[in-house]
Amino acid sequence: MAKKILVATEKPFAREAVDGIARIVEDAGFEFALLEKYGSKQELLDAVATASGLIVRSDIIDKEVIAAAPELKVIVRAGAGYDNIDLEAATAAGICVENTPGQNSNAVAELVFGMLVMAVRNMFDGTSGSELKEKSLGIHAFGQVGRNVARIAKGFGMEVSALDPYCPDQVMVEAGVAPVKSVDDLYSQNKFVSLHIPATDETRKSVGYDLMMKLPHGGVLINTARKEVIDEEGLARALDERPDLKYVADVKPANADELSERFAGRVFFTPKKMGAQTSEANINAGLAAARQAAAFLTDGTDRFRVNK
Ligand code: 3PG
User: Fold this and answer.
1) Model pLDDT, residue 251
2) Does residue 307 have its Cβ closer than 6 Å to ligand 1?
3) pLDDT at residue 68 above 90?
4) Considering only CA atoms, which of 118, 120, 164, 116 is closest in space to residue 139?
């Protein structure tokens, strides 16, 4: 019997992406299975029981899911951030975990500007807002999304700088971006800051009161990274003390209702993570994930492996 590759996505891919994934999986000689919009964890646990390959998005793949999948050899996160997968449990079970870096980064970068324009036009409330041209944008982490943000910002005529200790200055300079050396400088020198750090032990709750308070007058923080990197209490305190500040995020913080009520017109949250929710990004990331899962099960190719 052919090995099974399961796509398990609570937030479904576009139909064209699903069709393309199915084609790749079947052409490679595997069985294709699909679990979309599942309402309970049990449905996921049941579906993974016979899967050798698993393709997911932000779906939580914890110890329990891994224990329920005795056949599983490879998990591909169709996207960039893999903080939703318990890497330790996967490694202990001998499962390869991969992501698909860069495949959905333009979609996320475009959303940054959708939300930033909305913020500077006062959430389209009919009052006079401001423009992005000649304003300063700081990019917090210069990976694939950050680089796309820089490219688009240049089109708006913005002054762009970035902080990323893991990225050589030369890469920024070639992109017309000024390298910044400290997080304090990034926040104090830029009216707008766009967050692109992953959620790790080091970054969780790392952006809060102190950094928000450093933003110049009229500052906007745009978060299309992860809600976990924000210290939500500190954010609320800064918004309270500085009525000129705004926060726009993909996706909702835990205290979204409180923030929306207290700071109406100055905060905006997408109801679901929308950054990578375009048909182009779904096709790019979904098809790449399908190719990677099939390749791993065929001959062990693991170029985008993220665990040991
Ligand atoms: C990513 O890490 O690639 C993005 O956050 C997209 O997540 P999603 O696939 O759940 O939309």
Assistant:
1) 85
2) no
3) yes
4) 164
